[in-house]
Amino acid sequence: MAPKKKFSKEQIIDAAFEIAKEEGMSKITIRKVAEHLGSSIAPIYVNFNNIDELTEAVMQKIIELSYQLLAEENSGKPFHDIGVASIRFAREYPVLFQDFVMNQNKYFQNYDQNMGHGLIEQMKGDEDLEGFSDEELMTILLKMRIFTTGLSVMVASGLLPEAFNEEMGVALLDSMATDVITSAYLQKKET
Q: Distance between CA 158 and CA 155 in Å, rounded?
């Protein structure tokens, strides 16, 4: 007879997410999740075949969280919202953010693939980005991602001056976005 499900799949994912949020993705273990739940490992194995399956479920939760943060921005400027949501993610989930940037692995590659297509679709709805092909939008996104990653690392690591607040970060982000978009339009005219 199979062990009783003492915890739902969602409760187990939430416990694993809390571990990842505080300690990093690599620190998720079946035993640690069980300890977090105050349980034996049996309920976890009733819901997940192995740690990889559980970690994939945590990554799916992180992807959903990323889209939720993006949806909450909703300024009417999707490109702006992508950058602000990225900085917010770095501020609110610094350990996860540092995992994404510093510890690339198969789970984070899936994150990039899953988020990349969705972000390009978001960008297509931004009037400032009208007339660009998908390939051009990918280049614009990459350039902004490089800048945003650097800014987000500084946010997540507490490397910015104390006086540097969220409004200043958003203004800096918007300024760089304007520069990148203007440059892309100029390059497009030259070709």
A: 5
